[in-house]
Amino acid sequence: MAKTFPQLITSTFLMIIFFTFLHTSTSETPQHYFSQNLSPEEVGIFKQETLSHLHFYFHDIVSGPNPTAIQVARAPTTNMSSTGFGAVAMIDDPLTVGPESSSKLVGRAQGLYAAASQSEACLLMVMDFVFMEGKYNGSTLSVLGRNAVFSDVREMAIVGGSGVFRFARGYAQAKTHTFNIKTGDAIVEYNVYVYHS
Ligand SMILES: *[C@@H]1O[C@H](CO)[C@@H](O)[C@H](O)[C@H]1NC(C)=O
Ligand SMILES: *[C@@H]1O[C@H](CO)[C@@H](O)[C@H](O)[C@H]1NC(C)=O
Question: According to the UniProt entry, where is the signal peptide (predicted)?
Fold first, then answer.
């Protein structure tokens, strides 16, 4: 049956709307219902990136009644490995301003490390630095890196962050301050260089 004039107008109008929608939705924004482009201002970034340098000491306590690093897993062959290959430790290590254990606490290193090499003492580090001081309180930096513990300076990647460290990327340099061969406890100096919003 032929369309009446008003029906024709209506269907033409609907087609124009449809093709306009199709055009804008295909040419301007991709058809993703879970993503959209934003300007930096919309997520609160009004200025250029900041570059920060953080300096602190990391206390890895494996001995005594209150260890901050505990082994949680090992392979059946770990005991036979000169490098402890396969051992995994969970950590909640204090981060302090100075190297003394009584020094002011500024945060903690929470995560794990695992012996990842069969030929040298080398750890895979997967941890968050969570800070407790002033404007940094509650903000985190995420570290993922290779830590050859007997090398003078080890460099690890900062792969992200939260709070004041949103959009973080950078690197951390670790240098052993003291290592107690008897107990296995270590104090490590960290210098962290990070760009963030
Ligand atoms: C491996 O070492 C752990 C801790 O030192 C010990 O408890 C365990 O019995 C050892 N296992 C073997 C197979 O030697
Ligand atoms: C850090 O934040 C926590 C929880 O929001 C609060 O309890 C604590 O007092 C804060 N610490 C400092 C040093 O501001």
Answer: 1-27
